[in-house]
Amino acid sequence: MPRNPQLVLSQARAPLTRITQVMDEQGEWREQALACERPLTLYLNKREIVTLMTLGEDPEALVLGYLRNQGLIERLEDLLAIQVDWDVEAAAVVTTHTPDDLEETLSKRTVTTGCGQGTVFGNQMERLRGLTLAPWHLKQSQVYQLLEALNQHNETYRNAGAVHGCAICTATGEVLSFCEDIGRHNAVDTLAGRLWLNGIESEDKVFYTTGRLTSEMVIKAAQMGISVLLSRSGATEMGLQLANMLGMLMLARAKGRHFLVYSDQDRLTLDARPDPMPRSSKRRD
């Protein structure tokens, strides 16, 4: 339940997939699920902010997490309402006041690369200065526990593909919250909104994504207070630079029993080393 009793939230979850007819390589027709993709234009106190392309799994949390990660809402107590209406493809957010520097913040826009382009407003690096993350340690066996637990999720991906999944997990393998969306940045914003609404402490949690650990993803995880990153994909150079700067344990290429540790390697205890692979079959990552 939201920690802010005055907050009015809609419950506008949209259908995540629809069925279409496709032809396979044998010329046979079959049904195939498609991941839905729909625009959602975000308004803050009647000021248009951005249009997000989203799956629509948890739009209220997505909107809140986006605004928080962009520095446009700093206190949950200031929030009065989040109303999502799919008929007009809009989300109206009402707060007790509008940030004084809103126009200046919106004028500094960076469009990020990757699937489902994201938009970053303002000077993100300034907001990271002075940020301190908890440098707790993780065990290799816990990484394997997490990966096994996460295999039970990705429902939309299994049915239709074309989406990314992100999760907030404990070190003991519990998946506290999982979200799928068209873009990984939408999924992590949704998680940020859920954590904030429910008052979940995140300093001892693990952030997981099926997508790349880009600078944007590292920044969003850091803004949630998370210092351990786990991805089944790879990392970018700037993502790694930021992880090193912020003191984050970054693990990527995590599939099965394999993973690579990109930063803060001394925070991982290798207590479950698998048998070495034959030289001829070793991966080239």
UniProtKB/TrEMBL annotation:
Location in or out of the cell: Cytoplasm
Recorded GO CC terms: cytoplasm
UniProt keyword Transmembrane helix, yes or no: no
Gene Ontology terms describing biological process: Mo-molybdopterin cofactor biosynthetic process
Keyword Cytoplasm attached: yes
Catalytic site: C115 (cysteine persulfide intermediate)
Listed Gene3D superfamilies: 3.10.20.10, Cytidine Deaminase, domain 2
Pfam family, one: FdhD-NarQ
InterPro entries xref list: Cytidine_deaminase-like, FdhD
Keywords on record: Cytoplasm, Molybdenum cofactor biosynthesis, Oxidoreductase
Annotated function: Required for formate dehydrogenase (FDH) activity. Acts as a sulfur carrier protein that transfers sulfur from IscS to the molybdenum cofactor prior to its insertion into FDH.
Record-linked NCBIfam families: fdhD_narQ
Family: Belongs to the FdhD family.
The protein's name: Sulfur carrier protein FdhD
UniProt source species: Nitrincola lacisaponensis
